[in-house]
Design a protein that fits this description.
With 75 residues, the protein is mainly alpha-helical. The chain has one domain. The protein is 51% helix and 0% strand. It contains four helices and no strands. It is globular and about 35 Å long.
Length: 75
Amino acid sequence: MTESTAARFHKEMTVGEAIAIHPEAGLVFSSYHLGGCSHCSINEVETIEQVCMGYGVEVDTLIDSLNNLFADDEE
């Protein structure tokens, strides 16, 4: 894998780290109904994997969606 195609998001990073490395990461979390409303807010210190486990979201699917943000940036 080259540096340009290397995954930038991973399941061990915190939600806060994910949001900090790409401005649209929060939109991806919201699209999976994570943190998009007051009764299902997510904690920025939890890892992506912990959030997925807590809400029943497939972690690999969410990571793929997050990493697609960088593919969109390259176009």
